[in-house]
Automatic annotation (TrEMBL):
Keyword Lyase tagged: no
Family, per entry: Belongs to the methyltransferase superfamily. RsmI family.
Database matches in Pfam families: RsmI_C, TP_methylase
Protein name: Ribosomal RNA small subunit methyltransferase I
Gene name of the record: rsmI
Lineage, top ranks: Bacteria, Pseudomonadati, Pseudomonadota, Alphaproteobacteria, Rhodobacterales
InterPro entries: 4pyrrol_Mease, 4pyrrol_Methylase_sf, 4pyrrole_Mease_sub1, 4pyrrole_Mease_sub2, ATP-grasp, rRNA_ssu_MeTfrase_I, RsmI_HTH
Length: 255
């Protein structure tokens, strides 16, 4: 059927692709990918024929030309399948600008969903799953990273970040200082791959562990929500009271 299909691809193990994703890749009129080689390789592994199609390269920043071409195919009533390099498109990956443009133009936007590192990590971490906040990659500059962590300190849910192996020790050290050394955290590494590993501990323990034993590979960092002592309940209540008072005064002035 015509429309834009966001196709989820594996985050490590090639067989973690759904049968429906393979059907969509087999039948789409137009194939587009963040990394054309890795999509072609995945299709080859699973025996999905190209049938004379090519894979177009598309990133949200690849310029308006690439997007215009995909939009023209959609306007023409064709089906367009888009995959990012790994996991779900749009999740710390390109696809957002395309999704918006297709929705604004009134095209059907749908999905052949697959794995994502953030949900995979969350289900393994043993941290609360009822509420969580995914913040993508933390800024690489120390100052910006610390202010970002500061802004997330009172979020009432598990915090989830993607992080590079080069920066994980430093990120944990900053998190221990800004969020508090005792918060439980998990470093989830190489999920679904041969060297899959979970390291659990307090932020302080993990900061020391990762500084002493550096790691390679792909990493998700998860941090438990702050306890009511570390995120001062009194502060939240007085902030709320202040906000309500100002609102009431403003509303009264409007009358
Ligand atoms: N779209 C992907 C998704 O849905 O998870 C994320 C793409 S983002 C550019 C790549 C980052 O995701 C990596 O740097 C790492 O932080 C995380 N990641 C991807 N695959 C992973 C894996 N197998 N194990 C741990 N983290 C992974």
């Amino acid at each position: 059927a015509p429309g834009l299909y966001f196709v989820g691809t594996p985050i490590g193990t090639a067989r973690d692709i759904t049968l429906r994703a393979l059907d969509v890749l087999a039948s789409a009129d137009v194939l587009a990918a963040e990394d054309t080689r890795s999509l072609r390789r995945l299709m080859e592994i699973h025996g999905v024929p190209m049938n004379g199609r090519t894979v177009l390269s598309y990133h949200d920043h690849s310029g308006d030309g690439a997007r215009a071409r995909l939009m023209a195919a959609l306007a023409d009533g064709q089906s367009v399948a888009y995959a990012s390099e790994a996991g779900m498109p749009l999740i710390a990956d390109p696809g957002y600008a395309l999704s918006r443009a297709a929705a604004e133009a009134g095209h059907r936007v749908t999905s052949a969903p697959g794995p994502s590192a953030l949900l995979t990590a969350l289900t393994l971490a043993g941290l609360p799953t009822d509420a969580f906040f995914f913040d993508g990659f933390l800024p690489s500059a120390k100052g910006a990273r610390r202010s970002r962590l500061e802004a997330l300190r009172a979020i009432p849910g598990t915090l989830i970040f993607y992080e590079s192996p080069k920066r994980i020790a430093q990120a944990l050290e900053d998190a221990a200082e800004v969020l508090g050394p005792d918060r439980p955290a998990v470093v989830a590494r190489e999920l679904t791959k041969k060297f899959e590993e979970l390291r659990r501990g307090s932020l302080q323990e993990l900061a020391e562990n990762l500084a002493e034993n550096p790691v390679k590979g792909e990493i998700v960092l998860l941090v438990d929500r702050g306890s009511s002592e570390s995120v001062n309940q009194g502060d939240i209540e007085s902030d709320l009271r202040e906000a309500l008072t100002t609102m009431t005064l403003r509303d009264a002035a409007d009358l």
